[in-house]
Design brief:
single chain; two-stranded parallel sheet; Rossmann fold; 18 helices; nine-stranded mixed β-sheet; disordered N terminus
Length: about 550
């Protein structure tokens, strides 16, 4: 493959098209888990003590709507996107888009491609260009750009983040943040009378169809109430263990993947580092600690198949907890079938081994490392779920890293949320969560209208459960334990790793991708890592180690 034939993409506008006919819905924060049906009974004052069913949000759809969210994906996706698979690493279990099994769905970029007769051929070329750039020229080579004009939508033009925030039932946007913080402080100080009064006031100010702070506030208020009622763990497990309603729930994950660049960023950074580290290897073994659907590797496999010296033999060990089979509609055997189809399509030998275990339970013997293979290990928004020394005296998090180091990997890729919620005390953890997810809700706000059923479901199904776990749970039940990159760097260094430089060329390709979304996304290099952020808040870090 002649790397000089590859080129990056320039986009003149971050226009995004979507279709929505959903009416505005009222504020219903107590129904944030509307698609579930469960009864906790023991907490009569809990907002989760009622039965909920799939009809809870019927006000969001009119009688004429028959199309599924999956069928509408081409109408809500940014016009410039990556063709990597949606594997929903913001959820636990990771609920992934269940791609159609038809081989015609597999394409050169790397995932399910939603066929759309109205899809511009130029946009299809954009997808291929971005993905193929993973095996692009060295940093010294100049990147040629092709300009594509993408018009803004009326909704984008009408929404400006420089405008003054609107009042909310007597509370300006800034004051609502203060009100939510006051609720958490009262709960932290065990001032229950004050907490009840403040919470009642907050309930009147939040709305799942309002400003980003209002929408986030609806879920955070419910998290606070769940903490008071000690029902957070029950809620989290109910959400975690329920088999999803196939198309609808899985499509929410894919919508989040398409409308925000967070997962694309992680996949491209990891694939770029692995492609660089293994560019001269004839036998490659990839251990993925969250395989999900497996099609995130299609881009890398295609690039490896096109190497001038011929395709290497690739072995993929996919680790995924047994619960996540619900997201695929099948066990890890489905991943094996999909990778086999990719192998045949791109004419590259691929061997797959599935390991249905939780990451902390993985042993060296399960990984079947063989001599003569270049080993690459991937931790995609997953390692923070493994308990550390603050939860378990055996420190499974660091123990897992030391075990991986003992395998002498060629490269280890780490993608994590850039947030400090691990050992931070409750009140400070609440404030951190408020700031982190507010940036994420803002980034969603520029893409989908506030009355959109898809947006409500994305925030409800993909983000609310993690928020509840961070706020309402403690000890071993609190599994969303994020750490800042500086702490991950210390852990990996103590385990014997040193940083592997990320490709500046891949960095430039990701920056081109970001221009397809919003000018408020930014990508910075810091301490050897790449940090993707919204405005002045870093949200995701990507780094490589050896």
């Amino acid at each position: 493959m002649d790397s000089r034939q590859l080129f990056g993409i320039g986009v003149t506008s971050a226009g995004i098209s979507f279709t929505s006919s959903h009416p505005t819905v009222p504020s219903i924060p107590s129904r944030l888990l509307g698609s579930l049906k469960f009864d906790f009974g023991n907490s009569p004052n809990s907002p989760f003590s009622s039965h909920f069913d799939s009809d809870t949000l019927t006000a969001l759809s009119d009688g004429q709507e028959q199309q599924s969210s999956t069928e509408n994906l081409s109408g809500v996706s940014p016009s410039c996107n990556s063709s990597l698979e949606s594997n929903s690493y913001f959820n636990r279990p990771r609920l992934s888009l269940d791609c159609h099994q038809d081989s015609q769905e597999l394409h050169s970029g790397g995932a399910c491609f939603i066929q759309d007769a109205n899809c511009s051929p130029n946009i299809k070329h954009v997808l291929l260009d971005i993905e193929t750039a993973l095996m692009g020229p060295d940093d010294s080579e100049e990147v040629t750009t092709r300009e594509i004009s993408i018009p803004e939508t009326p909704v984008q033009r009408s929404r400006s983040w420089s405008q003054e925030p609107q009042g909310v039932n007597g509370f300006a946007q800034g004051n609502l943040k203060q009100l939510l913080t006051a609720c958490a402080k009262a709960l932290s100080d065990n001032r229950m009378d004050d907490f009840d009064k403040l919470t009642e006031k907050a309930r009147d100010a939040v709305s799942i169809t309002g400003e980003p702070i209002q929408r986030l506030g609806a879920y955070m208020v419910e998290g606070l109430v769940a903490r008071k009622e000690a029902s957070g763990t029950n809620i989290y497990h109910a959400l975690k263990c329920r088999e999803p309603e196939s198309k609808d729930l899985l499509s929410y994950m894919h919508i989040l993947y398409e409308i925000c660049p967070y997962l694309k960023f992680g996949y491209m950074a990891a694939n770029g580092a692995i492609a660089d580290a293994c560019k001269n290897e004839d036998r490659i073994h990839i251990i993925d600690f969250q395989i999900a659907m497996g099609t995130q590797w299609m881009t890398l496999l295609q690039a490896l198949a096109a190497r001038p010296g011929g395709a290497p033999h690739v072995r993929i060990t996919g680790i995924d907890d047994p619960i996540n089979k619900y997201a695929r509609g099948d066990g890890l055997e489905a991943v094996g079938r999909r990778l086999a189809a990719i192998s045949a399509k791109f004419n590259i030998p691929v061997e797959f081994h599935g390991v249905p275990e939780f990451a902390p339970d993985i042993t060296r013997d399960m990984l079947n490392v063989r001599p003569g293979e270049a080993l690459a290990v991937n931790f995609p928004l997953q390692l923070h779920h493994t308990p550390d020394e603050s939860v378990d005296v055996n420190n499974p998090r660091d123990e897992l890293l030391r075990m991986i180091k003992s395998l002498s990997p060629k490269v280890v890729t780490l993608v994590e949320q850039e947030s400090n919620t691990n050992t931070t005390p409750f009140f400070h953890r609440f404030v951190e969560t408020l700031e982190y997810y507010l940036a994420m809700f803002e980034s969603i706000d520029v893409t989908l209208p506030r009355s959109s059923k898809e947006r409500i479901n994305v925030e409800q199904h993909c983000l609310a459960r993690d928020i509840v776990n961070i706020i309402a749970c403690e000890g071993k039940e609190r599994v969303e334990r994020h750490e800042l990159f500086g702490k991950w760097k210390s852990r990996l260094t103590m385990a014997g790793f040193r940083q592997y430089p990320l490709s500046t060329y891949v960095n430039s390709v990701i920056k081109s991708l970001l221009r397809c979304y919003s000018e408020h996304y930014n990508l910075v290099e810091k301490d050897g890592a790449m940090l993707l952020g919204w405005k002045n808040r870093n949200l995701i870090s990507a780094s490589a180690w050896q």
